[in-house]
Amino acid sequence: MKKLLLAEDDLDLSTVLIQYLQLHNFEVAWAENGAKALELFQKNTFDICILDVMMPVMDGFTLAEELIKINPETPFIFLTAKSMMEDKIKGLQLGADDYIVKPFEVEELILRLNNILKRSESNSKINNEQIQIGNYLFDTKRMCLKLEQKTQQLTEKEAALIHFLYKNRNQLVKREAILKAVWKTDDYFSGRSMDVFITKIRKYFQEDARITIESTRFIGLEFKISE
Question: 167-189, pLDDT tens digit by residue?
Answer without folding.
Answer: 889 889 999 889 988 988 888 88
